[in-house]
Amino acid sequence: MKKVTVLSNMYPSIEHPTYGIFVKNQVELLKSKGIDVDVVAIQDPAKGKVANVKKYAKWFMKSLFHLMKNKRKIALTHAHYAFPTGFISMMGKKLFNLPYIVTVHGGDIDKMASKNARIAAMTKKILLAADAVIVVGERLKKDVIERFNVPEENVQVMSMGVDTSVFVPLEKSEARKELGIPSEQKMVLYVGNMIEAKGILELLEASAILQKEDPNITLYLIGSDKDKGFMEKFQEKTASTAVPVVHQLPMQQREVAKWIAAADLFVLPSHHEGFGLVALEAMAIGTPVVGTDVGGLSYLLADNTGILVEPRNAAALAKGMRQALTEVDEDRKLKMEAAVSMHSYDVIAKRLLALYEGIGNK
C-alpha cells in the first residue's frame, strides 16, 4: 500500500505533549503495522483570533503543498475532525483525486458544526464527499446519519482504541506509595481539560456532598488550565468548600496511568462527550468509572459497565460516586474487561487497516 497522509488540527509536540495525543497514538499504531504514514498537523494549542488565523493559514497551505507534491505516492488521506481538517482532504480529492477518510471526534459535530449554518453546510459537504466516515461513538453515528444525511453504510463506529501496554492493572497500594498518597484517603480522580463543559463544577459540588459523609474524600484533577475565566470561577468555588482539591497540569500517559491506578474512583461528568476514551483507559487499569449519561459515555458505560448519572446534576453525581465507592461489583469488573478487549489496539488496527486497504486499493 502507498502512503497514508494523516491530517489533524491537534497533534503533540515537546512543548505540548498531550495536545491531540490520541491522534499520535493511532499514527504510531499504524506505523507499527507497517503503514507508511506522513503527518501534517497543527502542534500549537494557542488560541485567539490572530493566532488562529496565522496557524490555520500556514497549516492549510503546507497541507495542500504536501498533497500536490506527493499525490502519486499517497493512497489516501485520513482527516481527524470533519471541519476544518476534513476540508483539506476534500480539496485533495477534488484537486488530486485522492480518496479520504474522516474521523469525527465529537466536538466537530457538537460544537463546531453548531456555530453557524455555513460551517454546518461545509461539514455536510465534507462528510458526504468522504470515502468513509469513522465516528468514535454510537451517538455520533446517529448524529452523522440524521443531521448530515450520510448513508449508514458509509459510517463506521471505531474508537481511537486503548493502549493496554500503558494502561495496565496496577496495585493501588503500589501506585499510592510511589505517588505519596495516604492509604486512608478516598481519592476521586478526573482527567481532562479544565473547562465548564466537562462538568467540573458539578464534580466539585458532588465531592463536597460526599466529604460531609466521609472527611477522607479528596478530589484530584489532571488537566490544562488554559481557560483562565473558568479557572477563576473554579478557584472561587473551591475556596467555598471544605473538599481538599489537588490540581495538576497534563502529564505523560504513563504518569496518568499511575494516578488512575491510585484512585478509588474515576469520574467523567461531561455535559457532552464524543466517546470518553479516558474512561476506557481507567477501565483498562481496573478503576471503577462514574460518568454522565451523554454521547459516547451512554454506550461505553451502559449495562453496568460503569455507573451512569444525569448530567449537570451534582446530587445525582454524588449518588453515583457514593455507589462506586461503597460497593464491590464483580459483574462490573468483567464487563469493564470486555469493553477494554473490544477497543484494544489490536482490534482497532485490524479494522482500520481493512478500511484503508478497501479504499486505497480501489
Automatic annotation (TrEMBL):
Main EC class the enzyme belongs to: transferase
SUPFAM superfamilies: UDP-Glycosyltransferase/glycogen phosphorylase
One protein family per Pfam: Glycos_transf_1
Gene3D superfamilies per record: Glycogen Phosphorylase B (3.40.50.2000)
Domain annotation Glycosyltransferase subfamily 4-like N-terminal: ranges: 22-165
Record keywords: Glycosyltransferase, Transferase
Residues covered by the Glycosyl transferase family domain: 172-336
GO molecular-function terms, A-Z: glycosyltransferase activity
InterPro entries, per the entry: Glyco_trans_1 (IPR001296), Glyco_trans_4-like_N (IPR028098), Glycosyltransferase_grp1 (IPR050194)
UniProt EC number: 2.4.-.-
Protein name as catalogued: Glycosyltransferase
